[in-house]
Amino acid sequence: RKEVEQDPGPFNVPEGATVAFNCTYSNSASQSFFWYRQDCRKEPKLLMSVYSSGNEDGRFTAQLNRASQYISLLIRDSKLSDSATYLCVVNIYNQGGKLIFGQGTELSVKP
Amino acid sequence: DTAVSQTPKYLVTQMGNDKSIKCEQNLGHDTMYWYKQDSKKFLKIMFSYNNKELIINETVPNRFSPKSPDKAHLNLHINSLELGDSAVYFCASRDRGTNTGELFFGEGSRLTVL
What is the average pLDDT across A6-11? Predict the structure, then answer.
C-alpha cells in the first residue's frame, strides 16, 4: 500500500464548479499535512498547509481527519487557472522529516 | 534571483554513461532533497541532507550517489545509466527548524536515457 494515496483523476469540470479531492495516508506517525500544486512541466509549489481544525484560503478549503487518516481539498468556483495537478503531502517527523507526496490528482477546468 | 537552481535542465544520454546534476539554493536552508518524478508523475523522495549530513536514503540503487559539499549545494551523480532512470529529477530545500513543510523546488532536470 502506498504511504499517501490519491485518486489520480483526471477531474474535468466546468468553470464555476466545486470540486473535492481526497487523500489518505497510512503512517500514523504523520504529523503535518499539505497540499501542493504542480502545473504541467513545472515544479510543485505549496498551495496550503492543512490544520486539524480545517482551514480556508479564499476559494480553497482543506480538512484533516486524523482518526480516519484522511485529508481533503475543496475548490469552490473553479477558474481556468486552477487547472493543474494537486499533490497531497505528509510530513513524517520520526523519519528525518520526510515529506511524502501522493501521486497527485489532475484537475482540468473547462470554459 | 533563483532560489533553488539546478543544472542542467535537460540531459539526453546513452545507456551506460555517467552523469551529474547540480543543485544550489540561496535561501539559507539547512536541508536539501532529491526527488524523482517518473512518467506516471509520481514524485518519490530519494535522498535528504541536513547541514551536509545524509539523513534520508531511500531504497535507491547505489549507482546514485549524492554529495553535499556545503549546506547550499546538493549534487547527484548517476553511474551506468539505465533506461529506467529516465525521469525528471527535482532538487528541493527547506528549513527544517521552521517545520512549515514548505519545500522550495528547483525547476527540475529532465533526464532521457536512450
Answer: 90
